[in-house]
Amino acid sequence: MTSEVQDEVVARYARSSGLSRRGRVALAVAGVLALTGAVSYIGLKQATPTLTATVLGYQVSSDHAVDVRFQVDNRESDRTATCTVRARDYGGNEVGRLDVPVPAGPRQVLSATIRTSSRAISGEVLDCQLT
Predict the structure, then answer these.
(1) ∠ CA(85), CA(91), CA(94), 5° rounding?
(2) If the chain, 131 residues long, is cut into consecutive pieces of 10 residues, what is the mean pLDDT of each piece?
(3) CA 92 to CA 81: how far, in whole Å?
(4) Residues 65 and 28 in one domain
(5) Which helix H or strand E contains 53, and what residues bound it?
(6) Domain containing 10: what range?
(7) N or C, fewer C-beta in 10 Å, the chain?
(8) How many domains does the chain have?
(9) In this predicted structure, what is the pLDDT of residue 14?
């Protein structure tokens, strides 16, 4: 094969190198910025929860009931929520659970009586979700 024919074959079938170095760097920088933005957004959403619940107190009223008093701070005060409260026994086992509706409003103080399967020693708010 002559060098002229060989040059034609290389020109016809050779792979192009794709993006230039500058293009690859720009693409990498854009990817890192997008990932940083996504992680920051998720972190901020987790760091400032919409609902926070604080147990103000609990009273073991019998071998089969616990009264829990708690406060819910709702940053989206125009929406209702549901909080799950639970009771635990001496071994840390869950012996009762109750979903408590929370009316709309920025701050609510609520009380709930949890029926238990055995004597509880504590009452706590497990979780709150907007509804």
Answers:
(1) 25
(2) 73 70 86 89 73 91 93 84 93 94 89 94 91 81
(3) 27
(4) no
(5) strand 51-62
(6) 3-47
(7) N
(8) 2
(9) 65
Could you tell me if 96 and 40 lie in one domain? no
Per-residue pLDDT at 23: 83
69 and 101: one domain?
Answer: yes
Helical ranges in the chain per DSSP H? 3-13, 21-47
Do 90 and 113 lie in one domain? The reply is yes
C-alpha distance across the termini of the chain, in Å: 77
Q: Residues 41, 46, 50, 52: what is their CA dihedral angle, to the nearest 10 degrees?
A: -160
- pLDDT for 115 equals 95
Amino acid at 70: F
Quickly list DSSP for 55-83: EEEEEEEETTEEEEEEEEEESSTTS-EEE
Instruction: Name residues whose C-beta falls within 8 Å of residue 113's C-beta, 6 or more positions apart in sequence.
Output: 61, 65, 66, 67, 68, 98
How many angstroms separate the CA atoms of 58 and 112, rounded? 9
Angstrom distance (rounded) from CA 62 to CA 117: 11
